[in-house]
Amino acid sequence: MAEPFSVWAPQRSRVRLDVGGSWHEMARDDRGWWHAEVPGAGPGTDYAFLVDDDDTPLPDPRSLWQPNGVHGPSRRYEHRAYEWSDSAWTGRPVAGRVIYELHVGTFTTAGTFDGAAEKLDHLVSLGVDFVEVLPVNAFDGVSGWGYDGVLWGAAHEPYGGPDGFKRFVDACHARGLGVILDVVYNHLGPSGAYLDRFGPYFAGKNLWGPTINLDGPDSDEVRRYVIDNALGWLRDFHVDGLRLDAVHALVDTRATHLLEELAVEVEALSTGLGRPLSLIAESDLNDPRLVTPRAGGGLGLDAQWCDDLHHALHVALSGDTSGYYKDFEGQLPTTLRSAFFHAGTWSSFRRRTHGRPVDVRTTPGHRFLAYLQNHDQIGNRATGDRLTATVSPARVLCGAALVFCSPYTPMLFMGEEWAAGTPWQFFASFPDPDLAEAVRTGRRREFADHGWGESEVPDPMSPDTVAASTLDWSELASADHRSVLETYRALIALRRNHPELADPRLDRFTVEDHDGFLLLHRGSLRVAVNLSPSPVTVPVRATSILLAAEGVSSSPETLTLPPDTFAVVGI
């Protein structure tokens, strides 16, 4: 039986197909697609393309399997061959649910999908609803964050390839966990990005690499390439949602933005599949139109990361006011009430006004993700140090109480739930020695400008950096780590069992601020958090104490909190 092959290369005069060393001429149609049929070239067959007179075989831009790395041939993959066991999984919306961000390569020492699946019961006992997985698309080398992907549809082979990722998703669904996948459409990595050899995929560069042609000549097929990739993860890998990396870097001047077009198609797929599918944006624009429904003139995404909430929490907990944290000193109450602090206000870091206000009457808080830590805010520090490296666990737990008892959708980063002692540092493993040295030098030069010595910045190309960033699960044997874990479990359980704590209505959310003492009004509950250096007694008549840190006490008319403590009480 003849098997079809196709590739889009509209500006090429000749395209040949290489199947196991046998070359086949391809025929062009009027849309710039080239086609060929090869008898017997079914699933498991390796293939590549040769464009014009170049004799270097190139992998398929839409490859689903790269068993020999991003420079090697593609391998045909048949989605229907995998036997799913998640037919009972009906999905869930992301609104207000607890999200757990993890990186497959450092979640366990195995560094694989199967290794990560072995720890899923821990997440179930924690009370997590969704696992958000950092990018698993194919990138050059063995180890990396995943944001330098170049073949977006192929699951990274060292993690376990496409079948491995399906086993992981299947295992999550079997335990009642949804899966959100981080995808990167704003740039490609520096090694193995061959798309421009086929056609006008690229439109320039940004800080991270070549950007995608979303609105120039011949961009219709490029947009289709992006959208089809997104739909493929959701449909063929049974993923429940996508986190869209740095959407502010997507350059698209069309009347219908790519994000709106993607939202429309994902909604249609969700209807067809009969399960909720979610789109979550990362954006530094502070523009609520991203998550405003299309009927209201927005782009219709389900949620977005909210760095302003992180920054305000970070400053309140740590006292760090360097760089972009400067504007957030003393601004935690304001930011908790409105999601964005920069809402048409002056940003000293940007040296201009920034953002747009959130309409708290019409925009629910669950459209914004709140977090104390994430991969960026840890990994982009010089030494990858976690918040607990400089802030006491007791004070961090006060921050966790604010996150989990807020109107926002809470997220935590792997290991945060037990105050992991391991850092999470920047690492990559590019085989090209020149590229590896350029990344190493660039990283050290970047932090040298901020006063860090060369020896203080971990070598991003060293396997020791990856090892240092891998979670140490033996820490759970320590009483101190277990104590933090139990508090996280209790906070998540409270949120699930008391709907008031997850109420997303920002216009009904009250935050009292008394010089570092915060009192959140959550229906019939109050969340008291003392970040001040002195004990605080407040006139709160607590009829019940749902959860309290050690040292908190109450009388019939008052509640007393020592420094760095919190309490959730009924009134």
UniProtKB/TrEMBL annotation:
Binding site for substrate: 243-248, 307-311, 375-380
Gene Ontology molecular function: any one: 4-alpha-D-(1->4)-alpha-D-glucanotrehalose trehalohydrolase activity
Subcellular location: Cytoplasm
SMART domains: Aamy
Keyword Ribosomal protein assigned: no
Site label Transition state stabilizer, positions: 376
Recorded GO CC terms: cytoplasm
Reaction(s) catalysed by this chain's protein: hydrolysis of (1->4)-alpha-D-glucosidic linkage in 4-alpha-D-[(1->4)-alpha-D-glucanosyl]n trehalose to yield trehalose and (1->4)-alpha-D-glucan
Pathway where this protein functions: Glycan biosynthesis; trehalose biosynthesis
Pfam families: Alpha-amylase (PF00128), DUF3459 (PF11941)
UniProt KW keywords: Carbohydrate metabolism, Cytoplasm, Glycosidase, Hydrolase
Gene3D superfamilies according to UniProt: E-set domains of sugar-utilizing enzymes, Glycosidases, Immunoglobulins
Gene Ontology BP, a term: trehalose biosynthetic process
Residues covered by the Glycosyl hydrolase family 13 catalytic domain: 101-445
Family, per entry: Belongs to the glycosyl hydrolase 13 family.
Name of the protein: Malto-oligosyltrehalose trehalohydrolase
Organism in which the protein naturally occurs: Actinokineospora terrae
